[in-house]
Amino acid sequence: MSSSVGTGIETFVALLLSHLPSDRVVSDPAAITGLVRPWNAQVRSRPAVVVRCQTTADVQATVRAAQSANLPLSVRGGGHDWAGGSIRDGGVVVDLTTMREVVIDGDEALVRGGATVSDVLDAARPHGFAAAVGTVSTVGFAGLTLGGGYGTLIGLVGLGVDNMLSAEVVLADGRVVTADPHHEPELFWALRGGGGNFGVVTAIRTRLHPHATVVTGTIAFGWDQARSVLRGWRDLTASADDALDVMFGAMHTPAGLVLFTAPTWAGDPEQGLQQIAAVRALGDPVLDDVDRRALADTVHALDEAFPAGLHYRLGSRTLPGLTDAAIEDFVGAAEAMPATCVLNVHHAHGAATRVPVTETAYPYRDDHLVVEIIGAWAEGDGVAESSWVDDTGYRLDPYALPGGWANLMEPDDPRARDAYGENTSRLLAVKESYDPDGVFTALPLPK
Ligand SMILES: Cc1cc2nc3c(=O)[nH]c(=O)nc-3n(C[C@H](O)[C@H](O)[C@H](O)COP(=O)(O)OP(=O)(O)OC[C@H]3O[C@@H](n4cnc5c(N)ncnc54)[C@H](O)[C@@H]3O)c2cc1C
């Protein structure tokens, strides 16, 4: 660490201690290590100071002090950015992990900036509601929503960004604003897909939906059926009801490689059993545990599949559909997949595809698939897993849309250039207007 950064840190801590209790400002390296363990063990960066913010005023004081001391900062919500974007090496972490309150207000929820997917679903469940969230309980709700927000209710309620009603944001100069369709409308537009690139989002108001309970589970097929099940998936989803979402993927199990589907029906339960029967009929399942479940319970199913502390390398490609040729390459990639890796595919359909491209910054609005290429390993250099991630991406490139989902891109990924399509110049204009000095670096933006 350079001496000017060292001086900056002393200035920062001194400034902050005149506003915040000392237990919220952590600069002891051992305490920091315990506080900000990265989800991905590949992330080596370590901050110089972690500020355990408890209020919006704490966040304002932290942002202002970091600016005065000329220190880089990052924002930590759920801590699940695989590339470690929430841990700025040698800088300040605006830690929101104790700001997790969720207040239910009719069919809306006010969600503080550090709440997780679980926090939101657990709060909404007693009221019979669910929110547009992802599939893993510990992921940050704000990080997920600002980056798009793919989840199993997508066909009925759209992406996470489509459900955002307003946001409270601490800007680079420390001011706090509310962004909604009538106040700071350009900021509100950019937040919905442009990630945490514009400020610290201390709260999001989101719509809730009466789907606390769904019919869901896993139906898996032996690998010899993979091609026919994938072709069947394509035909089934082409005319499926919006209430049916069928994620799928490939993973190794003790019984060998399987093609799994994760159907979710968010509608009348009796009708759901019929709808799910069509998924079951895609082949001869080796596993089928579909049942009525609380959505709040289902998001724990994958927690153990992606535990914190493993080494990860993630890739993704966004495909406009599943052609026969794409199926062949998907199957080939799965057959080359190291034992600890996974292919997981989100399907954007229904409500998510009826939002005009320019309505939010998130630009992918036609029916599409997001293939997550998840390289994971417990020990060693991960060369085989990492190469497989790269090779799978190259293999799917001929079928992929330009750009892709910025949420899973590395900071210097050249595909970021095309990740916002026709929304690019508007997004960059909002960045220039709200954060001209680049204080906030979340999702990669086009250069
Ligand atoms: C295991 C796993 C499962 C996932 N499943 C899904 C899924 O089903 N659907 C889906 O859409 N995505 C999913 N994702 C991707 C996820 O949405 C992104 O990784 C997201 O950035 C994680 O947010 P976080 O708050 O947990 O992470 P963090 O590492 O805390 O933050 C990620 C980025 O967002 C910024 N950020 C976070 N909170 C705020 C805030 N309040 N204000 C401003 N900036 C903020 C941070 O600065 C950082 O740059 C998954 C990721 C993982 C690792």
Structural features, described:
With 447 residues, this protein is of the alpha+beta class. The chain folds into three domains: 3-95, Uridine Diphospho-n-acetylenolpyruvylglucosamine Reductase, domain 2, CATH 3.30.43.10; 102-211, Uridine Diphospho-n-acetylenolpyruvylglucosamine Reductase, domain 3; 213-410, Vanillyl-alcohol Oxidase, Chain A, domain 3, CATH 3.40.462. The chain is 29% helix and 23% strand. It has 13 helices and 18 strands. The protein has helices spanning 3-17, 29-35, 56-68, 117-124, 141-146, 154-157, 185-194, 226-238, 269-280, 295-298, 324-335, 383-396, 424-434, and strands spanning 25-26, 49-52, 73-76, 92-95, 102-105, 108-112, 164-170, 176-179, 200-207, 213-216, 219-222, 244-253, 256-265, 285-288, 291-294, 311-319, 342-348, 368-377. Strands 10, 11, 12, 13, 14, 15, 16, 17 and 18 form a nine-stranded antiparallel sheet that branches. A five-stranded antiparallel sheet has the order 5-6-9-7-8. Helix 7 (185-194) crosses helix 13, helix 8 packs across helix 11 and helix 11 runs antiparallel to helix 12. The radius of gyration is 22 Å and the shape is globular. The mean pLDDT is 95. The chain binds flavin-adenine dinucleotide. The site of flavin-adenine dinucleotide has 34 residues, from strand 3, helix 5 and strand 9.
